[in-house]
Amino acid sequence: MPVLQPIVNIAELLHQKGITDIVVSPGSRSAPLTLAVARHPHLHVRVMADERSACFVALGMALQTRRTVGVICTSGSAVYNLAPAVSEAFFGQAPLLLLTADRPHEWLHQQDGQTIHQVGIFGEHVKRSYDLPADYTHPDARWFIERTLNEAITLTQLSPAGPVHVNVPLREPFYPTNEETFTYESVRTIEVCAAQPTLTADTWHRLLTEWDQSERTVIAVGQLPYDPALLAVLRKLSEETGVVVLGEIVGNIPRNDLFITRTDTFLAGITEPEAHSLQPELLLTIGNSFLTRNLKTFLRQYPARRHWHIQPTVDRINDSFQSLTTLIPATPLAFLEKLFADLDYQRFLQGDDDDEDDRHAFQNQWLQMDREATRLVEKTLAAPTDTLTDWSAVRRILDQLPALSILHLANSMPVRYANLCGVDERRQISVSSNRGVSGIDGCLSTAVGAALMTDKLVTLLIGDVAFFYDRNALWSAPVPSNLRIILLNNDSGHIFRIIDGPSRQPELETYFETPHGYTARNTAQDAGLTYLPCESLDALEEALGDFFKPADAAKLLELKTNKQANQDQFLAYKASVKAYQSR
Taking every annotated instance into account, which residue ranges of this chain make up the domain Thiamine pyrophosphate enzyme N-terminal TPP-binding (predicted)? Predict the structure, then answer.
């Protein structure tokens, strides 16, 4: 097998560069890559037959650990199946290394099977794409392969993290004979030293001056991983300076007595005088995308005079609210900790400042609106009913999540219901969701991947269309026993009944909701899951008593709800919001 030794060496280089986990989809052209990683003593290889699901599983693993995960697949259309997860990883900033086997390029357009244009196949949805040589006889070819893999692996982690593609053309023979053995040769690794951007003293003083001149300051937190240290400094800033801290469940901003989490409710139909009273002078944004349209609309229609966005790199200008004045290259935690320390020192030197009352007055306006919104939500959920609805179920589930556990939210309505409910800060729940592209494809696979990488309980809240679309997540590998799946099955794409446009069309049910009539019973049985059906509030309360307890197998709780009852409840909520705004 000496001709494929450079491919065998790739496995050793993955290990030396800190990669421990590989997800492989079976195939013949990819056999040298698969055998190289499978036989390596320090690489943990998992097999997923469906390439689309496999890449989402790898995404979930990368999101959970923040370490690079490798993905290997064979040539041809198999490579295209990686694309949905690749695009989510790109915009969600998750580190993936994609190793795609290929035929040598001279066989393109020669009627050879499984041969397509694979070089650059993911376009701009990867940080970089590489193509290795198919022949390794010249020493420069081996040097190029080694150098390329060093660069590609490093690039997956350099901020912003993301997917990198390495296309690997392979000639036959693919399989070693019985007499051949693998030898993992010594490989050269190239270290890239980490560095943090720093601000000059003049720039820092200018930023402090802008802060001091702004009495109405808002910090808006987009999607970010759970970080107790970041939450601690945000709380201190809010308590001691009166700054408004707002965010959503996907940004891991929990419910507490200081953070603003109900913007989707109280910014709906807000009056112009109220909007002006909440308009910031200085807006700080951190993290990635925001979930709720009402918050984004408000910040665009009533922009701050100064808008700082804090991100580790300046490769792209993120101006989603169309008001950006300053892009600050820094990690949010480091910047905010230094900001708080300097402000605290200023307060110590200057003593109490009467202006602080004005700052807290602005904060109190936001807090009052947030508390009113909480009452409106609670009023909707407290309405007497014997009918199990998606929203009421989500509220009960989130209130009973075990402390220190992990919550994955599928897209469409589950993430929105969860955001309307929120999670209590004292529970220390870590929340994750595929909000880079926000598709429903791969939500189940992503949660499976996360559960594979932790001993903590991982709960997935998912709708029926997303679940049945991604059933192959449960097909190939044993489902981790720490996974809990809660399936909201209303027999439709329920979000189209909530959105104003499609909900008014006569084609709603046939062309938008697409009812299916499926249940998850057979899927759960095939995958070896404990299956719990539920059709009432009483049954839900009884099921939740044992659902989160440790077990030898993963569990699936399927909630059968009525889409009309779901719609009626949500319309009642919207009506109460409208009535409050027109009071």
Answer: 10-119
